[in-house]
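Dear Dr. H.,

I hope your travels went smoothly. While you were away I took the liberty of generating a structure for the chain from your last submission, since the lab meeting agenda had it listed for discussion. I wanted you to have the full record in hand beforehand rather than looking at slides cold. The sequence, exactly as received, is reproduced here:
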Amino acid sequence: MNIILNIAAGKELPLELPEPYFLINSDIMYYQNTQPDVIEKELAEWNGTLNKSYYCKTDIYEFMERTKISFDKICIYRFLEHVLMDKVCYFIYLLSTITNKGSLIDVIVPNYTMLAEMILNEKIDNNFDANNIILTTELLNQPPDPHTSVWTMERAKYFFELEKRFKITSIDQSFEFDGRNIYLRFQAERI
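The corresponding predicted structure, in token form, is as follows:
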């Protein structure tokens, strides 16, 4: 089965969406949404032949703490950097509680190695304003949704493999997403 959770989805769908799927898009910005208990009932009745999509407006920590669903894939695009540094290990632990062996976590975050290189090689020229917007946005972001954790290839491997619940299976250090090629995309498998 392809039971997929798309965390902080906004309007983005998972990049790879194997069919048939049961997709839960989770984001606190949704206006129209379905309650988690209704989604769980729908999943219990799903026969696995038709694609199903739901929008859930629930705090992601609360959702992961309470859901009875086990996911085959979890997509986290441009959200993990918003997880407070002191909550990163707990967040990863919660991911492990809603996945089974072989489940995949697909993550896209700003690559702080690339951003640091941009700063170190910065030139005040015609591209300064465009590069400054990227750097300021991706390094800091603004309240009420600041970036509060730093991600590099080494940090992704360290944090996801720390408690031996996940194994990093692929890393792309220069991934283009949303028109910018400054992202790190990695996948971790539940072991």
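Two observations you may find useful: DSSP finds six helices and seven strands in the chain. Helices lie at 36-45, 60-66, 88-97, 112-120, 128-139, 153-161.

With kind regards,
E. W.
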